[in-house]
Design goal:
Blueprint lengths: L2 H20 L2 H65 L4 H26 L2 H4 L2 H20 L1
Helix pairs in contact: 2-3
Pfam families: Phage_holin_3_6 (PF07332)
Keywords: Membrane, Transmembrane, Transmembrane helix
Organism: Palleronia aestuarii
Length: 148
């Protein structure tokens, strides 16, 4: 490498060092705050975009679930009618066969509803691990502040 190439790099480096030294601590802190602010803004914008994408995917999934439920209910009606017809073939009247099938389906629905309701109780939805961790953190902070 030639001496002129090396001396120009040294000159550029010296100018950059001089520029950095001439900046005040105020300037450096201001630039740091600006960069941190820009970083936080960019992260928030990324989080918004990601959440929007996730919400759109969730909406499509909910639409598919609703369609599946509609088809499920239609299938359940057809199967219930077939069960009534099968029971009626045994010699039981169609009215009694309908009552038997309807009663069995009602019993299943009551059991599922009871289980679902108990699973949605306030105590089962409480964030127990988080609550335990926060209590432990508070206890630790108190211990360190009382001992310190």
């Amino acid at each position: 490498m030639s001496d002129t190439g090396m001396s120009s790099r040294t000159s550029e480096s010296a100018e950059r060092d001089s520029a950095l030294r001439s900046r005040t601590a105020f300037d450096l802190v201001g630039e740091l705050v600006d960069r941190v602010t820009m970083l936080v803004r960019n992260e928030v914008n990324l989080a918004r975009a990601e959440m929007s994408e996730n919400v759109n995917r969730a909406m499509a999934a909910v639409g598919m679930l609703v369609a599946a439920i509609v088809f499920f209910l239609v299938a359940l009606n057809v199967l219930a009618a077939a069960a009534v017809a099968a029971i009626a073939q045994t010699g039981i009247g169609a009215g009694w066969a309908s009552l038997i099938v309807g009663g069995v389906i009602l019993l299943i629905a009551i059991i599922l509803m009871s289980k679902g309701k108990s699973d949605l109780s306030a105590t089962s939805l409480a964030p127990t691990r988080t609550t335990k961790n926060v209590r432990r953190d508070v206890r630790t902070v108190k211990e360190h502040t009382n001992n310190g």
